[in-house]
UniProtKB/TrEMBL annotation:
<dbReference type="InterPro" id="IPR012347">
    <property type="entry name" value="Ferritin-like"/>
</dbReference>
<dbReference type="InterPro" id="IPR047809">
    <property type="entry name" value="COQ7_proteobact"/>
</dbReference>
<comment type="pathway">
    <text>Cofactor biosynthesis; ubiquinone biosynthesis.</text>
</comment>
<dbReference type="InterPro" id="IPR009078">
    <property type="entry name" value="Ferritin-like_SF"/>
</dbReference>
<feature type="binding site">
    <location>
        <position position="55"/>
    </location>
    <ligand>
        <name>Fe cation 1</name>
    </ligand>
</feature>
<keyword id="KW-0472">Membrane</keyword>
<keyword id="KW-0831">Ubiquinone biosynthesis</keyword>
<feature type="binding site">
    <location>
        <position position="169"/>
    </location>
    <ligand>
        <name>Fe cation 2</name>
    </ligand>
</feature>
<feature type="binding site">
    <location>
        <position position="85"/>
    </location>
    <ligand>
        <name>Fe cation 1</name>
    </ligand>
</feature>
<feature type="binding site">
    <location>
        <position position="88"/>
    </location>
    <ligand>
        <name>Fe cation 1</name>
    </ligand>
</feature>
<dbReference type="GO" id="GO:0006744">
    <property type="term" value="P:ubiquinone biosynthetic process"/>
</dbReference>
<keyword id="KW-0479">Metal-binding</keyword>
<dbReference type="InterPro" id="IPR011566">
    <property type="entry name" value="Ubq_synth_Coq7"/>
</dbReference>
<dbReference type="GO" id="GO:0005886">
    <property type="term" value="C:plasma membrane"/>
</dbReference>
<feature type="binding site">
    <location>
        <position position="137"/>
    </location>
    <ligand>
        <name>Fe cation 2</name>
    </ligand>
</feature>
<keyword id="KW-0503">Monooxygenase</keyword>
<comment type="similarity">
    <text>Belongs to the COQ7 family.</text>
</comment>
Amino acid sequence: MLDKLIIEFDKGLRTLAAPAMSGRPHPDAHIEECEMSDAERRHALGLMRVNHCGEVCAQALYQGQALTARTVEAREALKGAAQEEVEHLAWTEARIRELGGRPSVFNPLWYAGSLAIGVGAGLLGDKWNLGFLEETEHQVGAHLDSHLTSLPEQDARSRAIVEQMRDDELKHADMAHEMGAARLPLPVRALMKLSSKVMTGASYRV
């Protein structure tokens, strides 16, 4: 147990403090930078900062869920999803730097809260654990779709990243559903949306 806790603590430190690495090529690797006004660039930066923050939360959430998952199958599914989220971290972090910004100062706070939620979800049992994963990914997919309508039309680099992230998130949701995820009660889903709005509003600015 001590070894496991040390490993998980190290994961947290690397998520918050170390540059993330991607096994896949960055989706925008072969797309040229575009011309944007200062206002457009600030808006794109804010959206990508929100997306990066969401990936920090995903790492903590899946980490907590994997720690308390009951079966090997559920644990491995969560770990696999988390690995793709690391790639999303790398893509969004790089794009934030290209746009002249930095990740949200609130990331450690969101990480701690998401880790606690993930542990709690896992303690409820695997069907609810997977249900939380499925609902999270559906909400994230809708959130990313809204970003695709809001990003500056000419910002093809940010769009390529967001599109690939959305496809990956929906794939995770389908995986959880196929593994027997339970449908979360409406009040829980509503609370998740409210929490996401709070995080989005704060991270967009700083």
